[in-house]
Amino acid sequence: MPELPEVETIRRLVERHLVGRALETVEVRLPKLLRDSPFPSLDPLLGRSITGARRRAKILIVDWSGDLSLLVHFKLSGQLAIEHAGTDRVVAGHPVPDPHGPYPHRATHVIFGFAGGNTVYFSDVRQFGWLRLMPTARAEEVVESFGFGPEAVGHDSIELHDMAARLARRRIAIKTALLNQQVMAGLGNIYVDEALHRAAIHPGRPANLLRPAELVRLHAAISWSLERGIEQGGAKIVHNRAYPKDGFPQVHGRAGEPCVTCSAPITKIRVGARGTYFCHRCQPA
DNA sequence: TGCGTTGTTTCACC
DNA sequence: CGGTGAAACAACGC
After folding, report:
1. What's the confidence (pLDDT) of residue A1?
2. Which nucleotide is nearest to A107 if distance is taken from CA to C1'?
3. Which member of A17, A91, A211, A237 has the lowest number of beta carbons within 10 Å of its beta carbon?
């Protein structure tokens, strides 16, 4: 579930709470999460400090002293919790395990202990996420090798004409095109639905057939939905239902609930084998 | 208990 | 080579 806004929220937490902290202990309870990691263990981080946290697409890049970088992908259900002195806790990413419940949880797979009393818990119910440790120079190459398109939001995000050009050569459903990280980077199933609803575009429309006015609306709607998500610290979807009951996300996870624009009930369909929510009145085929 | 779940990769094919 | 569409995969909850 973590898409760009959730990963960006985690990045900001790492930046705010952990930069300059030295790592004293690390426990990897589920080593398979390090699959494909150039360094097969996180022990090389012991004694080193976090120098910064970056993000590219949905990948978190944590930079450490000694020119090491830890790449983290949260996939469907990754979550990071940062606790200070066993009391104050900030949590971002997937809403399970319960941010207010006890840690470590049985889905907690990595525990970092920092000087100064910070404990960090990486949890992942589905275990689809991964961590990869490598020299920073190699991290740049690895991130590059993913071939991500421009960022979907932010100061250097994709420009309208670039987005239009990239969509013009795809005949697939606009939703499917926007989920492709090589077209643009950061959108996932939740924010795509939000952006298309905001732009009043049916998710199944062929990407190359959008009219200029629709492209303008879509470009603005993508930034809007991702910014709303970041503002809110991420989206909360539990058992296919959106929370809070009235709020953002406005369509994803709200089958049967009234459209915020026209009050017609939100419909759930499948587009490219993905659960897709939209308003049949605001987003005509 | 088999299906749904999502981000991503892989594959055959045009 | 690049776009397409389908299938596969990760593992768990319901």
Report:
1. 65
2. C12
3. A211
